């Protein structure tokens, strides 16, 4: 085990990250290029391509940005700018469970900030991060269309209204 790795969990995480990164080469670029070829004729193809790449890999691999940029005749910075603007696009694979907490106005008025703080403290992560055991990813979202039942959250794709931290954590077994 390398010196900078302190326990088995960290070591496993490191291997997982390396496995993900080693994918980011030829094979991955071929798959990204194929997605571009398939969607490039759409009007405004960048967002559909980014969605499809995320669908394929579970996140937007760093190497994909360059491939997409080349295909669409854009700069890498332009593609990165769009990918980082939208909260839905991830820079790394999500954990087993994904908690999205609404941070828009109606939910904020009903305590969403405090709810987010509680969850972040409990999971020891910040927004858009995944717990060290790769079990839970916490993401912000801005309106789930459930404003009348604020504060709202989405847990593994299902919306839940009038949530509390306990209820959220119970649903993901934490
Ligand atoms: S503001 Fe949170 S669901 Fe609409």
Structure description:
- Helices cover 50% and strands 11% of the residues.
- It has two domains: 8-85, no CATH class; 97-171, Glutaredoxin (3-Layer(aba) Sandwich), CATH 3.40.30.10.
- It has eight helices and five strands, in the order αααααβααββββα.
- It has a five-stranded mixed beta sheet with strand order 2-3-1-4-5, with helices on one face.
- The protein has helices at residues 8-23, 26-39, 46-57, 62-72, 76-85, 105-109, 112-123, 165-171; strands at 97-102, 129-130, 136-141, 153-155, 158-160.
- A hairpin with a 2-residue loop joins β4 (153-155) and β5.
- It is of the alpha+beta class.
- The radius of gyration is 18 Å and the shape is globular.
- The two termini are 28 Å apart.
- The longest helix has 16 residues, at 8-23.
- The chain binds FE2/S2 (inorganic) cluster.
Hetero groups in this structure are: FE2/S2 (inorganic) cluster
Order of helices and strands: HHHHHEHHEEEEH
Shape: globular
How is the main sheet built? 5 strands, mixed
Q: Please report which band the strand proportion falls in: under 5%, 5-15%, 15-25%, 25-35%, 35-45% or over 45%.
A: 5-15%
Count of helix runs: 8
Distance, first to last CA: 28 Å
Spatial ordering of strands, largest sheet:
2-3-1-4-5
- Please give the domain count: 2
Mean pLDDT: 89
């Amino acid at each position: 085990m390398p010196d900078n790795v302190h326990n088995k969990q960290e070591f496993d995480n490191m291997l997982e990250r390396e496995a993900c990164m080693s994918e980011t080469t030829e094979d991955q670029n071929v798959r990204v290029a194929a997605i571009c070829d398939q969607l490039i004729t759409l009007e405004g193809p960048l967002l559909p391509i980014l969605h499809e790449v995320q669908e394929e890999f579970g996140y937007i691999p760093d190497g994909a940005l360059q491939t997409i940029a080349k295909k669409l005749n854009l700069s890498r910075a332009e593609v990165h700018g769009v990918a980082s603007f939208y909260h839905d696009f991830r820079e790394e694979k999500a954990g087993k469970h994904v908690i999205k907490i609404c941070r828009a106005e109606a939910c904020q008025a009903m305590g969403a900030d405090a709810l987010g703080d509680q969850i972040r403290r409990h999971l020891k992560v910040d927004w858009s991060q995944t717990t060290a055991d790769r079990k839970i990813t916490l993401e912000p979202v801005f309106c789930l269309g459930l404003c009348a039942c604020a504060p709202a959250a989405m847990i593994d794709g299902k919306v839940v209204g009038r949530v509390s931290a306990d209820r959220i954590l119970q649903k993901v077994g934490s």
